[in-house]
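Hi V.,

You were right to ask for the full record rather than a summary. Here it is.
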Amino acid sequence: MFTSWMQVNQIYTNAKDLSYTQFVSKFTYIAKKRCWKPRKQGYTIGRLNWVPPSTGELYFLRMMLSISKGPITYEEICIINGIQYPSFREA
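Predicted structure:
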């Protein structure tokens, strides 16, 4: 689901303006095709799984998903105010 999200950011221009937490309210995941499609009607509240701070980089990646909008690579998630950081923790 996560890597498919980055692929959708390349295809749909309106997806580039959404963080991952906002994205699930506008798109729906089709498990059989392993892809995201724009939501035709309705509204849903999405959520990210809880990750404990002791997991290190995984925890900081989760934090960045609520901030970063429209990345198409892992490296783009680490860009804040035009500055590329080497890790999710530093970003």
